[in-house]
């Protein structure tokens, strides 16, 4: 019975947490980070102020939680690294995972909050980078390093290669959405963009038969 109650309470706490982060995101977009109080967020999320403060004692802590949850909301980009050996398959999997992650409206909303508030609250940009973008970036960089170590790719500068690969995808999936409210490419178009990015990476970093770099 105790275990059942515990599981129930955990599910209830998770639902309240999701309601809080969703309400905070909406209000940050509508009123700005500075113009949104924790009390208003609690009211919008239909939770008590004590419940909100128990999970998020400060507005900064709440924003950091939003960043972390949004970036961890997609599939783990490190999954394909377990058995390096097929660069095309690995990049294709990562590329589609990344496109799905940054293509969600919630991710675009997060970027809009950071961009609009950055002049007054530079710490929001730092949180977005350190808690979201950087860990994801590092996981992809490690994947490319693993392929290089396995001899299935030639990636002497994995950091630069990661920038190129993720940048090609974000330039089609995410950044137009920052300026164009109706930007919503079809799944087939996104798949094509990912495939083109993979093909470009293979041409630059793939290890072909008779490659003079490995003679």
UniProtKB/TrEMBL annotation:
Family matches, as Gene3D superfamilies: Homeodomain-like, Tetracycline Repressor, domain 2
GO BP field: negative regulation of DNA-templated transcription
Record key words, sorted: DNA-binding, Transcription, Transcription regulation
Residue ranges of DNA binding: 37-56
Location of the HTH tetR-type domain: 14-74
Pfam annotation, one family: TetR_C_7
GO molecular function, a single term: DNA-binding transcription factor activity
Presence of the UniProt keyword Cell wall biogenesis/degradation in the record: no
PANTHER family: HTH-TYPE TRANSCRIPTIONAL DUAL REGULATOR CECR (PTHR30055:SF146), HTH-TYPE TRANSCRIPTIONAL REGULATOR RUTR (PTHR30055)
Name of the protein described by the UniProt record: TetR/AcrR family transcriptional regulator
Lineage of the species this protein comes from: Bacteria, Bacillati, Actinomycetota, Actinomycetes, Kitasatosporales
